[in-house]
Structures are given as structure tokens and as C-alpha cells.
Amino acid sequence: MNILLIGGNGFVGKALIKEFKKYNVKVSYLSRSQNHSISIDEATFIQGDIFDSENIVINKKYDIAIHLIGTIKNKKLYSKLNTESVTQTIKLCQKQNINKLIYFSANGGFKQYLESKRNGEKLVVDSKLNYLIIRPGLMYGKDRFSSYFNIFPIKLFSKLGITFSKKVYPLPVEKVAESVVKAILDNTDSIIIEIIDMK
Ligand SMILES: NC(=O)c1ccc[n+]([C@@H]2O[C@H](COP(=O)([O-])OP(=O)(O)OC[C@H]3O[C@@H](n4cnc5c(N)ncnc54)[C@H](OP(=O)(O)O)[C@@H]3O)[C@@H](O)[C@H]2O)c1
User: Does residue 148 form part of some domain?
Assistant: First the structure.
């Protein structure tokens, strides 16, 4: 099985690469810059900008693409990164005959952020590709030290039933990666994976 991570040099991409490696699944990651903490033995780097797909050189056949481009911090880029990059990824999948697209969406967050993610989901559903949508809350782990801030209050507020906190219930990034890789290797029939499925 060959997997292509779109925007895979980041926090979640790295966790997925480590998890796939356990099963000897071949992974490539496409992003504008290389992550030098990912070894050649773990994954192959493809340099490219999803908004400049004409100049992306792909020589292999991939079975699955996983979309990982997104932002919660930069409001001005919600539409571009969380939604329009999905349109570009779908075009790339069609051009490269990649039949399945996995989209990292979100389960909660600011209104406009969530809207941009739901718009991305709609594009995936309407794409005619096989698909799987992942809806994580906050993810934390040692590769993003700042991710440890707020997890304890959010977990506490979540247990108290406060809706916003419940919707972003934090999970270790490794646990999310484990659930996603398992779903792929088991060839799951599910089309959405929610926080509760990854706990
Ligand atoms: N982290 C969380 O807690 C969390 C929670 C819920 C949902 N999510 C979603 O999960 C996904 C992965 O999150 P993450 O934290 O791993 O994100 P991340 O660390 O920012 O990684 C995404 C990578 O995408 C690449 N990228 C950006 N623009 C690109 C472009 N035009 N072409 C190609 N690559 C591009 C960036 O690398 P370059 O700049 O080098 O291109 C970036 O490192 C995102 O969609 C995010 O919204 C994350």
C-alpha cells in the first residue's frame, strides 16, 4: 500500500508516518518544505505547493491520499487552507488516479474555523472519491510542546459537560494516528471517525 500525505511534514503528518512505519507501509509526504526530522527510511519527501499542482512531480502510484493542510490560528487563511486546499487535493487525486481521500477535519473550535472544515468535508463527500473524514478535537504531543497548554482545563470542563470543551476533547496525537492507521489497514466501511471512536 502506498500513502501520500498532503501537508505531511507537520504535527499530525509526523505521527502518522511513525505509525505507518510500524506496519512497513510506504509513505510519501508532500509539502513546501522538508522536515529533516523525518528520515528517508520513514518517508519520501515530495516538494510542492498544493496551489501550484502543475509543478508537483509525482512518479509513483498512490492508493490513498491523506489531507493534512489546515489552520486554526490564522482566520484570514481559513477558507484557503481548510477548504480551497481540499479542492486542489481532489484535483491532484483525480490526475494521479488516487481513489481514496482521507480528510483531517475537526470536531469543534471557532465558528468560522468549523464552517471552513465542514465546507472541506462537503467537497470530499461530493468528490466521487472513496473517502474517510476524521474529526479530532485538540491533539497534543511532544513534537508540539505548546499543545500541552490548556489540555487539563479542557478535559476538566469537558467532564463538567461544557459543550465547547467536549467538542475539542484532547487526545494524544499518537492515539489519533493509531486509530486512523488501523481504520485504513482494516479497510473500514466507516466514512467518519469521531473523537469517541479514537478515545
Ligand atoms: N493539531 C491539532 O490539534 C488539530 C486539531 C483538529 C484538526 N486538525 C487538523 O489536522 C490537520 C493537520 O494538523 P497539523 O497540526 O499537523 O498541521 P501542521 O502542523 O500545520 O501541518 C500542516 C502542513 O501543511 C503544509 N502546508 C501548508 N500549506 C501548504 C501548501 N500550500 N502546499 C503543501 N503543503 C502545505 C505545511 O508545511 P509547509 O509550510 O512546509 O508547506 C504544514 O507543516 C490540519 O488540517 C488541521 O486543521 C489539527
Answer: no
